[in-house]
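Margin note from the TA: students keep mixing up input and output lines. Inputs are the sequences; the output is the structure of the whole complex. Example:
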Amino acid sequence: MFRFQSLDEDCTLEEEDDGLVEEEEDEIDQFNDDTFGAGAIDDDWQEEHKRLAELDERDELGEGLGVGVGVKDETNFGASKDSSSTHVTSTAGQLPFHSALSLPHHSSSSGRHQSDVEDGRREGHLAESLARLVLEADPAIAGVGAAERPVFSQNQRLEHESRSRLLHQASPISHSPHPHQHPQQHQRPPGSSTSGQPPSSMLTYQQQQHLLRSLPSTIGQMNSRNIWENSMGFGPVSGCPGLVTHMEDSPLMSIIKEVGLPKRPSQGRNDEGRDLSERVPPPRSSSPVIGSPPVRAVPIGTPPKQPLGHSLNHQIHHPTAVHVRAPIQHRYPPPFPERLSPNTLLNFANSPLCRGPFSPRVSPVLSQIQRAQLLNSQVAGVPRGGPVPTLLPAGGGFRPFFGGPHPTLGHRMGPPHPHGHPNHMPPIGHNATHLHPQHRRILTQRMQNRGGDRSRTGGDWRNRDPYSNLMTQKEKEWVTKIQMMQLQSTDPFLDDYYYQHYYEKMEKRQEKERDSSKKEHTTKLITPQVAKIEHTYRPVQFAGSLGKLTVSSVNNPRKMIDAVVTTRSDDEEKREKQVWNKRRQILYTVEKIYSLLLEVQDFEKRFVHAPEEDREALLEQHKTNTMQLCNSLQEKEWDDRVSDERCVMIMSVRKGKRLISRLIPYLPPSHAAAVVMAIARNLPTLAKKDKQDQVLCWLVEPVSAVIMSMSSAALTDLLQELQGSEGQLATVLHNKFGVTLLYLILSEGERMQSSDPNCQLMDDNRWTELVFSVTRELLSIPTSSLSSPLFTPTNLIALFSRYIDRQRLDLLQEKLQISDLSR
Amino acid sequence: MNYVPGTASLIDEIDKKHLVLLRDGRTLIGYLRSIDQFANLVFHQTVERIHVGKKFGDIPRGIFIVRGENVVLLGEIDVDKPCDTVLQQVSIEEILEEQRLKQQTKQETEKVKMQVLKDRGLSIPKADNLDEY
């Protein structure tokens, strides 16, 4: 087995930009752009086609040779920088040549490597070398992965040009103890893995692993434009110690050690490249891919990304449509279940990429990372020992909702990184206005404490559990961020009760401690009243263009149908609609009154909490509200009477009945009495409408309260209303609520009579008359049609005994099953 | 460490052994590995525990993902504390059998009850048909 030197120096840069683009795509491909709402750059289908064509040809070759061959390698050797068509021809012949040249090239290229001016290249090498260090250091990977080593992309650009270099893998990991000295060594995957493999600049799994670890150093410089410099800045030396330490820390590693690496199909690339090889049928004359339209990971029509600075500056107020270019092979999921979210791959895959003069293409990539880091910086200013910052899900789309991104969260979870990274403390400032001020203070304090405190807390037992820390620190932060977002509120009475209460108590405790000096003890509203920024999705529009983009995708949704409401003039429909409209109207009215009622009910609570100066205003408002409430039941604005019709209308709905029952206590007595009258008057209708709901009895309590406070005359009137027209009483008695109401009235009358001998109840005969008719009715109706009331007042017997003779009294008693207390 | 004091967060519960009761009545015990904003839970080395009377049986289930809305309650299990000795562990087949029997008897009594009520012309509406508003 031999190793091959990187051939970067030999490669041409003619397709630089495209190459980079391709590489970007490939690197970014793994994560779900769709889920996270990133956009993309348009692909160059021609490029794609060329690539795939090459791929296809290589398929055949690969099979024949029994080894995956990096096409361009050979051509590079031969210093021919032709396009893909020539690659194939030169491949076969050059293979032995290639092998022979390997060693000599090894040394020379290393020398040449030094002179490489391209930052990206160096980065690529660096990444690779470091990744290899990972591999070498980890016996588990070495042992398992020996036979199947994914391709190590040397340089992303090169990758593009050279397709994937698949050369025989030298004894992959174990052989070189000095990674530093041979940074150019790369591992090649064995076998024909490249057959179906699209070229890609994918960093392999090891690379990713490695970069994963080393990137924390870059996190420290979030929010700064020069993150790229920083990320480039780390050298192999600094990377290594951290790496080694991380070996043990990584839960992934621990799992690997325990379980061993899963069998990986030999593949050049970490992602679908691998899968592709498995899926692609034996080489044929025509590739199944060629001929079909190029698969776009990002659909056609997704607008390009906005320039970098733009997104940075306006990250809060301006939800720019920032998109990340996704690679072609997006459809294939990442094969290996390392817990590198695709975003992590993207992140550090891009970091070597971002350098270099490929500005227009690079910036979109940057922006996503930048965005991620921006967002992440809000939460965790401290570089963590865990994996690379996870790109926040729906990064692009999510951003608009970060009207108030949260203050930095310090955190100590996960195996801390022994690196002494600078503590980055982004300002909390306006981003967390909606959080409780106490909360903000706590968070700032924590931030400040972050610097000294780096101890491993509880790390031990966690480490023993091989599956621990499956949820990365970033993910935890992300969830916490969402939770904090939910806590932000402008209306403490509306939002999280426990949260608000907690801080209230905390404040009170603190005030007690501080005590004497503060004489003014104001419990003000918890959170400052800051207007919530409206976040609505606005699809991307190009200035000066006519109309909107026609193609929609997951990443840039478009309104497909402009639905216009038209009213149908069908007669039948009309009638039906009218019914529905009426109902809707009623419901609407109910809702309106309800909100008024709730405001009135909440008044007291608010009043207590309001500071002095606000109390006046609150009181005023309260009065207005109450006034409105009273008037709500009136037919017209100027009419002072409670409208029967309206009451009944409201009560035809279940919610309306509930509303009335809650409303009555808040009405002035006259109004309340009028409402009760209305109820009594329309009881049959109400009873009929209530058949399904059976909730009239909700009204018993407030109505009884009203009745208690009624005057005798009013009471008599009420009884009269209840009896109403002929036959109404029968219906009333049939209904449970009706019976209850009747009993209430009678009981009240009796109470009046017995308590106050001069009461006016007996002044006119009305009351007596009414009671007579009631008793007559009660005696005559069959027992079966008599409903039992909710409760039976005790003084009914006394009442009846005033008016009817003994015999009838007994009958009545039996019928009504009234217990006889007086006797 | 709770990043958001004053609220409850599942972040601190990660990698600990938990018992979760689901809305359909199942009891799962496992290591909580991951959560999200909806309190969807990822359980590792999950065991479904069926209780019938004083007996219980464990069915190993592997990895479970529970949708947050289906959780009734969730509590950490103290692994150090000695196990409850009142309950007796039985084999899976046995506990499933017990469960089936219990279910059967319950259905039978329910049927009888409904019949009796029907004979008297009464009916008890099922709870899930009612709605408050």
